[in-house]
Amino acid sequence: MHFPLGKPIAAMLIIAMVTGITIFNRPAEVKKDMTLWTFAESHIRMLTGKSRRSPDPESPVKRFEAETGKTLDPKLIGSRGMDIRLLSMFNNPEASEEIPDIVFLEISGLGRYFRAPVDKIGLMPLNDRLTASGWMDQIVKARFAPYTKEGLIFGVPIDLHPVTLTYRKDLWDEAGIDVQSIQTWEEFHHAGLRFQAYWRSRGFPNRRAIVLQSAGADDLVMLLLAQHINLVDGDLNVHLTDAVVVQTLIKYARMVAGPEQIAGDVTTGGGGSYRDLSRGDLCAVLSPDWMVYYLHQYTTDLNGKLAMRPLPVFKPGDTPTSTWGGTCVAIPKAARNKDLSWKLLEKMVLDAESIRFERAFSSVIPPIRSSWPGMRSRGGDPLFGGQDVTQLYIDLADKIPRRISTPFSVYATARLGMAVHEMVTKVRDGGDANLERYARDRLIEAQRDVEALIAFTRSQEN
Amino acid sequence: MLDRRGLWKLQAKAAPYLFVAPFVVLFLSFMVYPLLRSIMLSFSATPAPGVVKFTGLANYAYLMRDPAFWQAVENTAIYSVAFLSIQLPLALLLAILLNSKHVWFRNFFRFAFFSTHLVGTVFVAVLFTQILNTRSGLLNKSIGFFLGATPQINWLGDPVLARISVLLAWLWLSIGYAMIYLLASLQSVDQELYEAASVDGAGRFGQFWHITIPGIRPVLLFMLLVGVIGSFQLFELPYVLFPGGTGPGGADLTIVAYLYRNAFSAGNLAYASAIGWTLVLMLLLLSALQLKLSMRRTQ
Q: pLDDT per residue over A264-299, tens digit each?
């Protein structure tokens, strides 16, 4: 058969027609009564069990459906896509075709929603409902801080993410160092140097004591939080030039670079710190509770070789833990039925049975105190040689520092990251003289930039 | 009332407009209108959802003294200059090689070099995070093969090496694409010119300089123009290579990355619009300068 435009065009036309017919004949997706948006696959796993399409009958999703007679669609949306969709929705709720009934929000991105004056924030304040239902007294108070603006709580925390130190007990023990007895970061630094010297003499010149990033500030921010420092506080005061920040930056730079280096960057690509731990390249890691689940997935070869302890401190009065990441659940102001949304929120993340179900798919400690006694593991964790790591996280749960989210926190962290890089370069190049002055100057510059951004933003609001 | 002849005339007049109407409507709705809105937005503030306040030149004034923006401009300029000064000569060299009749399997090599362009930026970025892995990456292992021990070079953790890594991935992605254009252009140069030059005693370099380069000059200029525009829009590659904007020493911060960060991480759409229009202005100026210089040279 001859086609006047040639065979390639004919082939393309046939493919287009077949595809078009297939798409046209595809059965339309049944629209569910309610929608939940989340950015993490782990949340979907926790809420549905093993499969999103056919949730486990005991899962929070199925139990909610059975109790209310409403169908629920838990949607997984990439965090960046969710940012864009939520911002568009808040800007123009009338034009939004689909408004989720509840939404899971990641802690570091909250600032963008909190730019607006409190009465214009696109999320519903939840103080009254939290108080009336009694949850306000059961949830760890410090964890409301990131989701609060001017006293109004816009999200219910679903985690605390206390941070501990997980280390390769077998390797530290062989080097003759008892990590559990270390009190301060100063002591850990010295111990790390001894640890590396031991392994260097046995043919492992690249073995490092701990994972700490040399070019960003996320780890440093965690160590500052443990000293009760938020880079930008709730009143938008910037704390980059506080003496504690200057001193911690210097100590941090000496740990990650120069002649006294004990830290290495995590390996890029899949596996990251799990692979480093497994290979014995980096032998300790700052470990929030969520990490335990992944350690069980990726470091099975380390059974019995890991151990965990609270974080060392810089000085008396610091908390022996920090917090890394976090999620809250919020209700958009434009949600169709706010009472039902609240009921959904309670069922998904606060209900005791839901928490028990979710425990099978996560190692995260919930922020609800009454749920903790049921979480203790019997016989400890074999990966950690029988140590009860859940109990350790629970012991630290009430000690997590207050973390505050502002629209400027991300920028302040990025600016601190640049100061870290400059300090690391200086220490690496052997410039130990006037280190304190150099650090302070870098932080003064960073503080000036963050304050300028805050002033500019405020001038636009008025 | 229009008679049959009048109707025929009317449809003959209206038909072209009706044919282009769908495109024009879509273009006006989804291109021109958003562009005009973003110009207006760049002179405004968006302090709350749905609230737009006219602030005149405030966004642009702050942009001029915003150190992060200038770092983004510096980064982008460095990437742009480094990229173009390597990409074009290398692509030309490859095109000349693969234009030669003495090279076996020319078509296979042409496809092989071009195929990198087909896989997409995100794929390349993911691939390079594996290749550049500090402890088990192919690059460090290859270097280790010659040194006897695998060095632990932190390609994505050091600011200078991170920029080199971005450049490597970008070149790997785009050299084949430029090569195809130049190859097509080389094939259109009149072969008789080479024969005449040869008769006149011109050497290989003389022929290249006086025949090949002038012959492919329009394509070279086009590639340069497209390259400048493309390099000023660099975004996906560093965005995926350094997840979450964690490039060492701000190595990932390009103008478009900064625009994205302001629009969708900070939620400041007005300031992001000002960054966007400043970028447009920069590109217009650069393109005009480039065209002017090339025209002067032609004259």
A: 988 766 667 888 899 999 999 999 999 998 899 889
Q: Which element (helix H / strand E) includes A122?
A: none
State how far the Cα of B128 lies from the Cα of B122, in Å rounded to an integer: 10
Among the four given CATH numbers 3.30.70.100, 3.30.2130.30, 3.40.190.10, 3.40.50.1370, the one describing domain A34-157+325-362: 3.40.190.10
The answer to whether residues B182 and B223 touch, using CB atoms and an 8 Å cutoff, is yes
Q: Compute the distance between CA of residue A321 and CA of residue A363 in angstroms, rounded to an integer.
A: 17
> Alpha-carbon distance A291 to A164, whole Å?
10
Cα–Cα distance for residue pair B278/A89, rounded to 1 Å: 27
Nearest CA in chain B to A279: B135
Q: What is the pLDDT of residues A86-124, one digit of tens each?
A: 888 887 777 667 889 999 999 888 888 888 888 889 999
Q: Is residue B2 part of a domain?
A: no
Q: Give me the residues of A, 28-87, that contact B with CB < 8 A.
A: 80, 83-84, 87
Q: Who's near A43: CB < 8 A, 6+ residues apart?
A: A104, A327
Inter-chain touch A115–B48, beta carbons under 8 Å = yes
Neighbours of B49 (CB within 10 A): 21
Whole-model pTM over 0.90: no
CB proximity B159 to A under 8 Å: yes
DSSP A250-318: HHHHHHHSSTT--EEPPPSSTTHHHHHHHHTSB-EEEEEHHHHHHHHHH-GGGTTTEEEEEPPBSSTT-
Q: Is residue B212 part of a domain?
A: yes
